[in-house]
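Example 3.2
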Amino acid sequence: RMFAKDVFIMEHNHMIYLVISCTPTKFASCIRHIGRVKYNHAAISLDKDLSKLYSFARPYHCGIFMGGLVTESYESYTLNKSKNVPIVMFAIPVTDEQYNTVRLIISDIKNDHEYMYNLFSVLSYPLTKGFGTYKAFSCVEFVVYLLNMLGYCLDKPRWSYKPDDFLNVFSENIVYTGDIRKYIAKSHNPMYFRPINKVVVFDNTRGLYKILVRSLSHRNYPKAFKKLFLNIWHI
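Structure, written as tokens:
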């Protein structure tokens, strides 16, 4: 096993790219305020151009409670607005075997529709410092999970990390800091802005219920919050 700041005698033929960002959604603004952080989001890419960014997030703008592993688009970061979207990009050297491991893990999770966004761990972070939930990740948890699977020893549980933490852990691996609009190619993903309809409302409601039940059933969830959420749910 290895530590992020160590120097390894290994043949690194590939890079994976970790990106943390300050996205312009209202939910992102809420997360930054609650967590007292500059960056609210984290993602992984297998190529320098960031043509495909993988993260746990909403599949489209109105699907806030339907989060899972998604391939993100230009629209999901910018909302097609003219406002700057600050990012920090880190290049993480990996071997052929590690690179293929990341690809396989992403593919396996993407094909397993049980995975969800660990919503209540994120929302309760200031009080709980996060908690693990069965088949659920936040964006940061997903990135830390991949790093763990590659052999990186990080000193906290994966749900305890914030995007800003990577600024210290991988400070020597920063390759770009600036506006994402000046780095990635503009794309067109009309589905990201699909309108709200009955199906979307139903799917959001079902997603919220599923992650609530799954969070409450996990042993890491604080008992006081479990009682509080159960009381709210039955009002």
